[in-house]
Amino acid sequence: MDQRQLEVLIEEDIKKKEEYKQYKYPQIENTNILFDDLRKQVQKQQISFRKWLTIGLYSLHLDVLLSERQQDKNQPCILINSSNQICQLNNQAFQLGIRVGMNTSEIENIIQNILILKMQNQQSSQEVFNSILRYLQQIDKDVEVDFNNKNIYYFLIDVTNYMTEKGFENPADIASSIANYIHNEFKVESFCGIGANTLLSFLAAQMSFHSILQNSCISRIQEIKDFVSHLHLDIKMMTNLSESLLASLEKMRIMSINDINNNLIQIYQTFPQNVTNSLLQIYYGVSRNYHNVQVEIDQLKVSRMLKLGEYSIQQLQYLVDQIVEQITLDMKHYKRIAKIAKLQLTKIDHTNIVVKREILRIDSDYFDLLKSECFQMLKSLQIQNLLLQKITIQVFEMIPIDSIINSNITFAQRFYKCVQQQQQSKKSSLQPAQIKEQSSTNYGMSNTNYIQNQDQNRFSFNQNNLFQQREENENKSLIKEQKIDLQQNKTFFQQNQQKQFLQQKTNNNQNNQQQKSKQLQQTQLFKQSNQSQISHFLKNQKN
Asked: Domain residues for 396?
């Protein structure tokens, strides 16, 4: 980067800071008061937000292939990839106990009764997908499309204008009309799900997968027992989830999908730990591991508003506050994250050290969930990733590597390479000195077997030395700091003593001078009185 580019970046940064300074919000310790104040500001300005729907398409490729093979439509069918792993299946195969993610070797006893298709030519399914996309673009020209590893397409569409044109009053009605159109026009009957957000669209897709819903709209579900008993579980560890979920929901008197939506946080706090983890993997692992239903849809709104440029600062700030508020509802630790997010979003004066300290105060048990929520929100608002990357690398060095590898967070995977590079650079800088020390200690030893064992275990030995050397360096730095503190205390004490002595000396000198001046004044007065008396006596004698 040359000097000119650097100057341009600095000028742009200064302009952005000046723009953010125009929108200052009050710093209040209680975040709820801040949210209420922002809501009042938005209500005064009468800002209207759009109505959004999410459409989920489940097992698109397999469904299109089966529609071309009508003779095999009612036969158990699976779709495998190049490594013989099952990536899609129909309901008949699901009833046989087959799950997504299994290998064909695990179902050898029933494989002769199953139709196996390979993930090769996707031209036909791509044509259907493009046709559906063109139809949705008639409703919203800027429809958002997302695809993840669960083979589900998500369409985020704005139905505000469409509802007013068609006279719909409820988003559920327009969801039903879109679902019926897709079924009738494209003959897609086993995978389409529509809801107010990604979670509900995924649940609707599951219900459609089991032929419980005719129009694939989640708002049509009235009884939660059907939802629980027919839930599509793709993960082996969740075999007992339905029973635990149903028992917990019956205790809480939750009988409809609206009750789930309204009491999701209470459900999250009530469930046992294993059920909670399963819920997180089912509900939120499908898309981006969010813990709240509305967080994901609001994040998509924010990123989309930024992309289209159709937003005001008040709208954007209000949406961000909605996200932060929902984060604060679940755990007390989220309040600290909300403050950090506020500092970043409003560009209040702060330093990297302050942000780093705030993040490091968070308990490690909640850290994975917290950092994904906070950083995904900041990244969705296109805030500079440089500071986030620095903080993340520093924090990841303090967390066990296993917890990072086992987490399903894309943010951790993204920056884990940076951590590895840092660790490798440290190893390369420390290994020559360690090898030299090791060779000097082994020099002169006559036991060749011991030397061979040392050579074989050199890598693990070097790793242990790295950790030991890091601990020793930390201890040395602490000792140095303590010595410096002691020395500073000594010098400070000596300086104070010298100051006190000099102050006392000056005070004594001042007192002595004052006493001398008083004595002089008294002697002068005495002399004057004596002279007056003598003169008076002489006058009397003359007379």
From this structure: 28-47+312-417
